[in-house]
Amino acid sequence: xxxxxxxxxxxxxxxxxxxxxxxxxxxxxxxxxxxxxxxxxxxxxxxxxxxxxxxxxxxxxxxxxxxxxxxxxxxxxxxxxxxxxxxxxxxxxxxxxxxxxxxxxxxxxxxxxxxxxxxxxxxxxxxxxxxxxxxxxxxxxxxxxxxxxxxxxxxxxxxxxxxxxxxxxxxxxxxxxxxxxxxxxxxxxxxxxxxxxxxxxxxxxxxxxxxxxxxxxxxxxxxxxxxxxxxxxxxxxxxxxxxxxxxxxxxxxxxxxxxxxxxxxxxxxxxxxxxxxxxxxxxxxxxxxxxxxxxxxxxxxxxxxxxxxxxxxxxxxxxxxxxxxxxxxxxxxxxxxxxxxxxxxxxxxxxxxxxxxxxxxxxxxxxxxxxxxxxxxxxxxxxxxxxxxxxxxxxxxxxxxxxxxxxxxxxxxxxxxxxxxxxxxxxxxxxxxxxxxxxxxxxxxxxxxxxxxxxxxxxxxxxxxxxxxxxxxxxxxxxxxxxxxxxxxxxxxxxxxxxxxxxxxxxxxxxxxxxxxxxxxxxxxx
Length: 526
Prior knowledge:
Helix content: 55-70%
Largest sheet: 5 strands, mixed
Oligomer: single chain
Strand content: 5-15%
Number of helices: 23
Transmembrane segments: 25-45, 52-72, 92-114, 126-146, 166-193, 205-222, 247-269, 332-361, 382-410
Membrane topology: Multi-pass membrane protein
Region (Disordered): 505-526
Keywords: Membrane, Transmembrane, Transmembrane helix
Domain SLC26A/SulP transporter: 22-387
């Protein structure tokens, strides 16, 4: 058997165990019931036909489910990309969405083949949590308008400032108040469902909440908007040549990079979380990145939503007892059968109920329980998290994530540039200033504050021999300080730079000693 074939067959060896096929079959039904309302809800919130969410879920099961990478992780449309997809559709149009997703998939495949999957794990956890929190906030703010049957503003700031007016309009309008009641009722079911007996909780909470909201709406004939149904074939719109030609624009490429970064990071972070839930085969991150890229390429060809690995479906898959990829493949088959045989069933689902599901999902994206402990233990990380989230709300997804990444890099540079300044006095009045740690330009203000407060009429030695790192900017500034600090007639400041073979450049150290010596001779002549 070739190694290529073994990669596909190895995860299925567990099917030889007694009862394994039955467990995977039942797990696939659970994942299907969890995925169905989420696929539809994410699509509607993204501003695309509901059927496109099902298409992405089907591809996540029938295509990505067969590929090696993570054995139990389930892929499909995710709430984490809802905001970015909505912005892309609003700016470039629905036709361009397929082209953007297609290029995103191609980039993911290239990154996986170049073995870059492991590097996505190096992204700061605070940035990822801040990204998810920002997505959650924007998702909540936007779906509050959908719950009331109102059109949501485009920017996050407008969503916030428009809330008082939305509240007034909702309370004063019968239709809006009815829709909001359906939405909040859906949220209440989602919150209370985990507290019910285990026998009741066999039905997934999102499915139960949407089913109850649909039954109440239909039973009482409430005047609320429902999902618009177009049919699976009619909803699929492959990108045209004109759409592919537009991929060269800077704005579109920026969106593609945002899709690639966020989808890849969310998928691989999800894989790490799923690996902790079971004792089966571990995830191969490069192969998983390729699998996600293949899935997104197919979704792009079909003009569907982008996909990521979804932690909600993946955890449901593991908890339902799945042992092999068969469960996620079958869940894609159930989605396909539903979309082909029962498409009209989507038309009876209230939009407010789906909005309630997404508001609940948005709340779960905000790490409320982790923020306070994080702020106490690592204040800088909490600042990165909060800044990333706020930046996403105020600007957009791509700019917010970039701001978070830059801030994380700056924080890391600041932490690693820790330096300690010690001043001691020797016999005869000579002062010795010793620097330890990493002397970089980031710490220059603190270093110079101590040095400039030193007396100018006493001999001073600046000892840098134990510094772990001395960058060029810091060394040059300290040399200039040594040349100019002491008054004329006082012995010049003596610098002791790191010896040869350490962090400083020996020729530069010799040059510095030479300049200090010339300065001392000049003072003597005066």
